Amino acid sequence: MKLKELESCLQQVDVFEEPKLLLEQYPTSPHIAACMLYTIHNTFDDIENKLIADLGCGCGVLSIGAAMLDAGLCVGFDIDEDALATFKMNAEEFELKNIDMVQCDVCQLELAAYDKKFDTVIMNPPFGTKHNTGMDMQFLRMALNMARTSVYSLHKTSTREHIQKKAVDWKVKMEVVAELRYDLPASYKFHKKKSVDIEVDFIRFSIT
């Protein structure tokens, strides 16, 4: 599947009707999702026939894209039942069978239950702003525990040094695959501008 074709399909994925501020619910744009998945698939061969976890999956754009690229199975994890209901509708609309979902608090998952159970973990975690300080690192810690091969994640470029230190502490190899501009649309009433560009790193962590 070509990149443009993948992006075109992901543009049809429904997103949050009423995003929840406390959960930092911002949709991953079809363009960013397609570029991430296309790179994971074509450069690193970490999707096709692989068992994949999507942490904080929301309405499922990354899971659906991974399923379209022939993941063996992609399991989405999210705390929000409304988001998962939209995800379920999206999966049914695309008639995808290699998708499953789990409603849970990712930060409260039992480590032993999912230890090294997935080949690849993909995620666009909460950036850890507002009321969720440190949430991005909790998601990353869980992802590294769950993955056998690699974790792909989006993080604010401003946190890169902090994440690099953590990667050294946790003995994983970190590679910034791309620097992106994340166009954050005005989703909440307190947003004054129509959209804000945030500098974001697309990072690959290799489990050694």
TrEMBL record:
PROSITE patterns assigned: N6_MTASE
Residue ranges occupied by any Methyltransferase small domain in the UniProt entry: 43-141
InterPro entries attached to this UniProt entry: DNA_methylase_N6_adenine_CS, rRNA_MeTrfase/Polyamine_Synth, SAM-dependent_MTases_sf, Small_mtfrase_dom
GO molecular function list: nucleic acid binding; rRNA (adenine-N6-)-methyltransferase activity
SUPFAM superfamilies reported for this sequence: S-adenosyl-L-methionine-dependent methyltransferases
Family membership noted in the UniProt record: Belongs to the methyltransferase superfamily. PrmA family.
Protein name: Methyltransferase-like protein 5
Source organism (scientific name): Megalops atlanticus
Lineage of the organism: Eukaryota, Metazoa, Chordata, Craniata, Vertebrata
